[in-house]
Write the structure tokens for this entry.
Amino acid sequence: MDVSPAGRMITLLWDARYSLLTALLAGFGRAAAEVGAVMIVGGNIDGFTRTMTTAVALETSKGNLPLAMGLGLILVAIVLAVTQPRGGRASVRAAGGLTMRAPISDLPLVLDDVSLQAGATAILSRLSLTITPGAPTLIVGPNGAGKTNLLRSAWDLAAPSTAASPGRPD
């Protein structure tokens, strides 16, 4: 077929018009809901609690579209800057066919024969665990099983009752 790149783009946009309209309306609805929620909880007190989204909404309602567009572009730039990896310190890890981007961490984490007690209650009893870089590691258990205490002792935020080699290896 002898179709120009512009013709292909127009055809593609025409075919995707309902999907694009749905995405646009969903984005607008989400932005309106965020602005409404912020205003309800007091996020529009001038000079005290005004947020970028409420400032954009306020300036748009006043007819100051250049300022509203400028604030919106600044907000988009901040979001893009915050969500991008910093200085190449992100690693890519594959897990179950999925790819995760995560900051490089202090792994491996080694816990060897760790016990933790709160009074007479044993929270962790002779736990040994090694977490290495690679696939994500999940810690699953019911409420009160000791998941948070495990992580606190692993990162030296809570001193274990007994431990052969707690925390990160040197």
In short: Strands lie at 90-95, 98-103, 109-118, 121-131. The longest strand covers residues 121-131.
